[in-house]
Automatic annotation (TrEMBL):
Protein name stated in the entry: Chitin-binding type-4 domain-containing protein
Gene3D superfamilies the record matches: 2.70.50.70
Classification via Pfam families: LPMO_10
Molecular functions (GO terms): metal ion binding
Coiled-coil residue spans: none
Family, as annotated: Belongs to the polysaccharide monooxygenase AA13 family.
Keyword Transport set for record: no
Keywords linked to the UniProt accession: Copper, Disulfide bond, Glycoprotein, Metal-binding, Signal
Keyword Flavoprotein: no
Source species: Dichotomopilus funicola
Source species, domain of life: Eukaryota
All residue ranges annotated as the Chitin-binding type-4 domain in the record: 52-183
Cofactor(s) required, per the database record: Cu(2+)
């Protein structure tokens, strides 16, 4: 069936232009009722079709119906999730499910203050060029560890104040990808 295979080739080419990636370890923030209520069902329905897809597409789809900051944790809400307890010095093992890479791009991992959407302290990881086009396994761009810094003990003492945010910006297509890991540092 030449027409079908031609169609499939076009679909593959079209989706190949999009990047797709999401953190799968540790458990990142996910969708829930508070998110759908605040962001709106147009945005949430669109984004949940592809949890690894770029934020910009959902924002464009939602238009004026968007009721949340989509660029803070992809719009996902703390109310729908739970914070992990990490001690200072704990090594947190990350895995990014990279479904489709796209260049050029950069990525970083930072602890963010959720109330102000600002970075706390120094970034935990910075990649000037992400994903690594020549990477061989084990890949340090998608499998990496971060260490919980001492400077966060008071700023992140209870759940809902801080998240570790993984951030990827694919500059060619102007597409943003984010995953947040809620955590707190128990006293
Ligand atoms: C990480 O990405 C965010 C979003 O663009 C940016 O605000 C921040 O400056 C970046 N951090 C580094 C160290 O590049
Ligand atoms: C990309 O991967 C290659 C092959 O594993 C490695 O030699 C290189 O250092 C990596 N680049 C960066 C920036 O980590
Ligand atoms: C990350 O930490 C785990 C557990 O401590 C360790 O087994 C693994 O080798 C570390 N990975 C990297 C890339 O350092």
């Amino acid at each position: 069936m030449p027409s079908t295979s031609h169609f499939l080739a076009l679909v593959t080419a079209a989706t190949g232009a999009l990047g797709h990636a999401v953190v799968t370890k540790p458990q990142p923030r996910v969708a829930g009722p508070a998110y759908t209520e605040l962001c709106g069902s147009t945005y949430s329905t669109y984004m949940e079709k592809d949890p690894a897809g770029p934020i910009e597409n959902g924002v464009a789809q939602a238009g004026s119906s968007l009721g949340c900051n989509a660029y803070l944790c992809r719009g996902y809400q703390y109310e729908d999730n739970e914070a992990a307890a990490y001690k200072v010095g704990d090594v947190v093992v990350f895995h990014v499910d990279l479904i489709a890479g796209h260049h050029p791009g950069f990525a970083n991992v930072s602890v963010i203050d959720l109330a102000t959407n600002t970075i706390l302290g120094d970034p935990l990881k910075v990649w000037d060029d992400w994903p690594n086009a020549t990477a061989t396994t084990p890949r340090s761009d998608i499998d990496f560890n971060v260490t919980i810094p001492e400077s966060l003990t008071s700023a992140c003492d209870v759940g809902g104040k801080c998240a570790i945010q993984w951030y990827w910006y694919a500059g060619g297509n102007k597409q943003t990808y984010e995953s947040c890991v809620d955590f707190y540092v128990p006293a």
